[in-house]
Amino acid sequence: MSQSVRQPAGYEDELASAARALQSPAAFRAFYAEHFGFVWRCLGALGVPTAGLDDAAQEVFVVVHRRLPEFRGESKLRTWLYGIVRNVAANARRSQQRRPGHSELQADVPGAGADPLQSLETREAVDFVQRFVRELDEPARDLFVLALVEQFSIPEVAPLLGVPLNTAYTRLRALRQAFQSALARYRAEP
Amino acid sequence: MTRHDDAAELIERARRALSPREGDQARVLAALDARLFTPPPAQQLTAAGSRARSLHRSAWLWKGLLPLALVGVIGLMVSRTSQPARPREGASSAAPALATVVQSLSALPVGVPDDAKPQEHAVPAALATGEPAPGRATPPATNGPAPSGAASLATGGPAPSRAASPATNGLATGDPAPRRVAPPATGGAAPKPERKKPARKKCRAADGGERPCPSPAAPTALAMAESDDPGEPAGSSLRLELEALRGAERALRERQPAAALALLEDLERTLSGGGLMREERFAAATMARCALDANAGPTLLQHFTHHFPSSAYAARVRQGCSR
Predict the structure, then answer these.
(1) Mutating which of B2, B9, B28, B243 best tests the A interface, going by the most A Cβ atoms within 10 A?
(2) Deepest in the core among A149, A177, B175, B185, taking most CB within 10 A?
(3) What number is the ipTM of this complex?
């Protein structure tokens, strides 16, 4: 796995960003502002329920704060961050499963004045994506969230998956097809 | 539209919906600030530091004595099995030794300082005074009695950590630790020794009140709708609801309120008052009725806002009913 050893392009900037985040609370807050959206979306896509997103996001940044000194620039900062998000999301899902009887709507309530039809379609889209992601195995889940939801390039994602570049491309193609087929089946259902 | 475009559009829509809304970032940041950057008062730190050091010493005491006692027991057993020819003598000579080992094992906690014996209580007590500790914080309900530090947590103080085993010596290092912002405590100052039976969870009802959560044996329609298998009845009920709502919306757009209302009434009969999207159904039905009878608009609007005072659809219903 030579790719995981090779430093990605721009890793010095990433290291500098990580180092800055450790210098002061203000710098960490800037780091937080930069990555919050990514963390929040990934947690949601990985199936963390809406009610648990606050706690899960907090947990991610607490772990980031603790582990930033360990970041060596061997992967992109966001890929490294995603590793933390993935673990926190898995914990959140497990704790959710331990609470039987607790359920909630996965999608959030739309904003005031939203078109009911649009909000329904949005809710349906989120629900479909979350269901699809839940049924994937872990590498495919990571690939889906990073490459298809977050639009990461495959050279960025491949090191996290620990696979060669070509394998990652092949998996992505298969994943796209699986998603399209699942969507077609879903739409075709009476 | 190709399948690829359709899939890409759906993912993009989900991505937008999963993005944080206004206020999410600031809310989490405020909680995070309290966990990471609010220092505990210096006086509390000093008191807690000495307590943590004492815990650290007791941890090493445990670490040292326990293996010794175990070695003693194993040695005794080996010596007994290696002397099968003289069981009576062996037994008589081993009995006092065994008694000594058992006594030493049972006496172990006696040598431990008082504040370290009941670990679950000692650790939160130390933390309650403001000592930061490593490890993941867990809710008090899973961890024995509520620590008295919970009150300070709500104001940004340090958080309780999982009750560490004696071998967990991180307490003495005084490293700053991740803290979880806990819900405000009811005020207890000292940890209570007995475990409280957790109260039955309350679920928030649609009207804002609270009611006991349904038991797992009787899953709600919502829970069933969330199940993984799309072929389950609840999944199809959600689908049915979605389809009917879509149809009603379409009919409303095409200025056919009677058709929309018929669809919604059919749906109500099918769901018998249940279903997940009661608010959406109510909104669509109100708009359809308003379209049918413009004079009844204000009454219908009032009826809707009475049932759903903070509805996201209020503006749209108001618009539909004031024409």
Answers:
(1) B28
(2) A149
(3) 0.78
